[in-house]
Design brief:
Layout lengths: L1 H33 L8 H20 L12 E4 L3 E5 L12 E5 L4 E5 L6 H13 L4 E6 L5 H4 L2 H7 L4 E5 L19 H6 L3 E3 L4 E3 L1 E2 L2 E2 L5 E6 L8 E6 L8 E5 L13 H14 L3 E4 L8 H24 L10 H8 L5 H20 L3 E4 L9 E4 L1
Parallel strand pairs: 4-5, 5-6, 6-7, 13-14
Antiparallel strand pairs: 1-2, 2-3, 3-4, 8-11, 9-10, 11-12, 12-13, 15-16
Amino acid sequence: MQQALLGAVAAGGACVVVAVSSAVVVRPLLLWYRSDGLRDVAVGAHLRFNLRVHLHSVLLWLSGVSSKLEVLPEVAELPGDVIRVLGSNPSRMTLRGTNTYLVGRGSRRLLIDSSDGNDAYMSTLLRVCEQHGVHEITDLLLTHGHYDHMGGALRLKARFPKLRVWKYLPEQGQEGDGDGDRRLHVSNAESQRLGISALRDGAEFRVPSEGKEDQQGAVLRAVYTPGHYNDHVCFLLEDPAKPEGPVLFSGDCILGFGSCVFDSLVDLMASLTKLQACRAATIYPGHGPVVSDAPSKILEYISHRQQREAEVLAALETHSKDTRGLSSAEIVAQVYEDLPFTLRVAARKAVDKHLFKLLVERRVDLIDPAGWFESVTYRLV
């Protein structure tokens, strides 16, 4: 009996190994071999990218999904000749999934973001293309290099061989004060190995109209908005025929629900101020539902961060007579309540960014730990 049980476990383990190998090695190899669209991508770069996308997707899946979120339809037609296709990658970090957007009319379209390229998303996207007579996606515009937004880029290049993929490639010195997890992000060097073109701030893309680019029609304009990450851009849809105002594709700079995770608070606040000047009417976010009042949402984001800063200062004020100060974990315990572990980690990173900003402004002091197992602490100047 014991031998039979061990044999069953071994067989099950072998099946898992075969399934994983197929997903991260065999299928990508076949895709690379059969596709003209991937001829500019080395097979090693393709396999490494695919492996990282899968690992990132598993980590997100393990985080679970909040039951408080608004349920979004798999596909939604939005004003401005836009079709939103949900990324089929729900998690606590991606909400109901990554929002991707087909933009334009006729047989040719632009696409903003590509989810992680999972089978369910690709099937839905291709079905939507077929239903709407879309034969070609000419350009994939990436808001930034996190895998839940650009993980599907190579699968789309394989399906649409003429597809051009664009991402902002930050120059040296544009790192801001961020120290984001590089393992969850595609670098400039890797982007170039994947055949991705450099997107510049202010670049414009004519929106296809009935199979051709209308020189007098709508335009998508890239707006460099670091903060969530140093390569982040938003896209502004400007249409002279729509007097109600531009539509802002906000990526992860502004979400449809809750607040965003950010790598640099200094950059994020500057980007939010920059977006205020764009005078967008509506926001189509990277995650969550449509935001119908863009000015109010942007102001809400600015006010929220200002409120968090005030709460951090208030927490430090309560211990102003304590020469030891407070660690960021202790501040999180006072400022945030009843957070699950996965979100508590993100909250601590946010508090760390607030503390860094306050350090730069010389409003707090950093106290080095007294021992190996103690944390850095902070106190008011």
